[in-house]
Amino acid sequence: MAHPVQRQAEIVELSPVGAYHRLVLQAEGIAERVLPGHFAALAVDRADGSLLLRRPFFIHRADPAAETIEIVLAEVGPGTRALARQRVGDTVDVVAPLGTSYSVPTAPASALLVGVGYGGSPLFGLADRIVEQGGSVGFILGASTAERLFGVEHAKALTPDVLVTTDDGTFGIRGQVTLPLTEAMRAIEARVVYASGPRSMLRAVAEVCSRESVRCFTAVEETMACGVGVCMTCVLPVVGDDGESRFVRSCVDGPCFDGSRVRWDDIGSVPADLEGAAAMGGL
Amino acid sequence: MSIDPASVDLTAPFGSGTLPNPVTTASGCAGYGRELAKFLPLAELGSITTKTIMPYPRSGRATPRMAETPSGMLNGIGLQGSGIEHFVEHELPWLAERGARVLVSIAGERVEEFAECARALNGQPGVVGLEVNISCPNVDNRGLVFAANPATSHDVVAAVREVADPALPVYAKLTPDVTSVTDVAMACVRAGADGLSMINTLLGVVIDTDTLRPHLAPSGGTASGGLSGPAIRPVAVRCVYEVHAAMRAGQFASVPILGMGGIRTGRDALEFVLAGASGVAVGTAIFNDPTAPLRVLDELREALAVRGFAKLTDAVGLAHHH
User: Domain Dihydroorotate dehydrogenase catalytic spans what residues (chain B) (predicted)?
Assistant: First the structure.
C-alpha cells in the first residue's frame, strides 16, 4: 500500500467538467508517490466545522514536476458541495496517496478499461502506465445520461477503441457498460479488464470477466470515515491468497481488488464462513 | 501569569503510577497503531489505547457500518478484530519496538473471556495497562452490555483485576447510557479498578430517508450504533464531572479518570482536566486529522501555560474548587 502524507494543499484549479468539478491541488511529496488507483482523503470542512469525516477521491492525474494532483468530484452531499464552493488559492487538508493501486501487467498486454461517470477517473493514469509498458488499451465509458459522462475526449486521444454508453441513450450506445462488454473484450483481445465506478457495475463486469476467463481488477468506491485504515467502516468480504474470506479494508487492502476475489453478493451481510474470520491481517 | 509552555510538567497520574503525558488514543480510533505511526511517533503520546481485543477473531457487523452526523458519527463495527493471540504475537512486539506505551482494550462476551485476555497480556512487552471495555454484549444476560448495571460491571472488573499482573493498572470504560454513571463507577472502583475511562459512545440510530431504513446494517436485532465526536462532549464532561465530584465527596476511593468524548483540540482536553480527568483520549477527531492526538497534546500544553499552570495535576478537577 501507499505511504501517505498529510498536507495543506493549495487549490490551483477548480473548474466545471460536465456535471462534475475538476480540482487540482498543489502539495509537495504527493504526486511522485501516486500509482494508478490510489486515492486522496480530503477534509471538507473548517478545522472547527461540523463535518468531521474525510471524503475519499480517486486521483485522476498526478504531475510530479508541478507537484500537483487532480481529482474529479461530484456534488452529492454537504461535504462535496463545500469542496466545490472553495476558490483557487484556498487550502484543503489532504492525506494522500492512499490505498492499494491497480495491479498493472508487467508484460505488454491489451487491456479494456471500463468506467462509469466520474468513477472512471483513475483509469486514465492507468492507461498511460499500460501504454508506457508497451501495452494497448480500449475504453468503455458509461453514465446515466450524456452530461454525466467523464473523460470521453481524453480516452479518444489515447486510443481509437472507445465505446460510450448512456442509460437514456443521449450519447453513444443506449444501455449500460456491460452491454457491449463481451464484444469489446473479444474485439481488442483483452487479457485484462480494469473497472472503476459504482458497486453494481463492478459486480456485473466481474461476472462477465469470470465467464470469459479474463482477469479483472475493480476499484471500489466504499464510504469511509478515515481513509487511512483505522476506522474499519469500509470493509468488504474478500477472498485472500489462502482461500479464506475476510472483511478487509477498502482503504488499505483496496480500493483496487482482483474482481474475482470480492464476494459481491455477500456485501451487506455477514456470510457464515466469515463469522470469526480474522480481520486486520489483510489479504 | 502565562508561563513557558516547554516548562509545563505534563506528567499524568495513571493508576497508582504516572505516564509522561496525559494524551492517549481512544479505543477503536487508532487500530493497533500501525496506520497512525505513519503520521506521528507513537512513543510521543502518553500511551496508545488499542482497538478492543477479544479472546478470538471476530468478523464484526455487516456494512454499512457508519453514518456521519452533525459534529460526529454513528458507528457499528461490531468489535472486528484478530483476537488476543494474534495481537500478542504480531501487533504488541511491533508497538513495543517503537517505544509505545500500550493501554490494551479488552472485552469478552462472558466474564471469563475478559480474564482470558488479561491473563494473555501478563508479562508482555509494551503493556502499561488494561482498559476493560464493559460495553460489550453479555451472552449470559440476553445480550445486555455488562456496563449497563453496577453488578455485572463489578464482576468483570473483579475478574480481570484478579488475574492481571498487579503492576498493570486496570481501567474500566464506562458507558453514559445508564441511569447513574456514578453508581457504575463506584461498583468498578470497589471491584478493584485502578482508573476509569469515560465515556464510551452513546447509543444512537440514523434512518436513511432515501431507503426508508436504518442507515447501519441491522445486527442482533438492533439498528443502533455508537455516537461519537464533538457532539457528545458535554455528555462526557458531565460524566467526568459527576464521578470526580463523588470521589471528592468520599463516596468511594479516588482513582484517576481518563476523559474522552469529542476531544478535538487542547481546549477541549483542558475542559476534561478541569472536570476531573488526569488523562485524555482523542478518538473520532483522528478520522478528521490523523495527527490529532499529538496536536491536542501540544495545544493542551499551551492552554495550561497560558493559564499559568506549571503542572497538569494543578488543573485536575479545578472546576470543582468553588
Answer: 18-304
Architecture of the domain delimited by A110-219 = 3-Layer(aba) Sandwich (3.40)
pTM (two decimals):
0.96
CATH class of the domain defined by A5-98: mainly beta
Q: Write out the residue range of the structural domain in which residue B296 sits.
A: 5-61+77-203+228-320
Residue B103 lies in a domain: yes
Tens-place pLDDT, residues B240-265: 999 999 999 999 999 999 999 999 99
In chain B, the number of structural domains is 1
Q: Is B120 inside a domain boundary?
A: yes
Domain boundaries, chain A: 5-98, 110-219, 224-283
Which stretches of chain B are assigned E, i.e. beta strand?
12-14, 17-19, 23-25, 48-49, 66-69, 72-75, 102-106, 127-133, 170-174, 195-198, 202-204, 207-208, 213-214, 225-228, 257-260, 279-282
d(CA B8, CA B306): 10
Chain B hits for A43, Cβ within 8 Å: 288-289
d(CA A185, CA B186): 68
Is-catalytic flag, B136? yes
Task: Compute the CA torsion angle B30, B31, B35, B37 (nearest 10 deg).
Answer: 60
Q: How far is CA A278 from the centre of its chain?
A: 26
pLDDT digits (tens, 9 = 90+) for A212-268: 999 999 999 999 999 999 999 999 999 999 999 999 999 999 999 999 999 999 999
- B68/A52 Cβ within 8 A: yes
Q: What is the CATH number of the domain that holds B287?
A: 3.20.20.70
| Cβ-based contacts under 8 A for chains A and B | 129
How much is the pLDDT for A169? 97
Looking at residue A2, what is its pLDDT? 73
The answer, yes or no, to whether residue A188 has pLDDT greater than 60, is: yes
Whether B147 is covered by a domain: the verdict is: yes
Cβ B229–A278 below 8 Å, yes or no? no
Q: What is the DSSP letter of A148?
A: G
Strands (DSSP E) contained in chain A are 5-17, 20-26, 39-42, 55-63, 68-73, 91-98, 110-116, 136-143, 162-166, 173-174, 192-196, 215-219, 235-239, 245-249, 256-258
Would you say B45 and B282 are in contact if contact means Cβ atoms under 8 Å apart? no
Residue B262 marked in a binding site: yes
What span, in angstroms and rounded, lies between the C-alpha atoms of B223 and B204?
A: 9
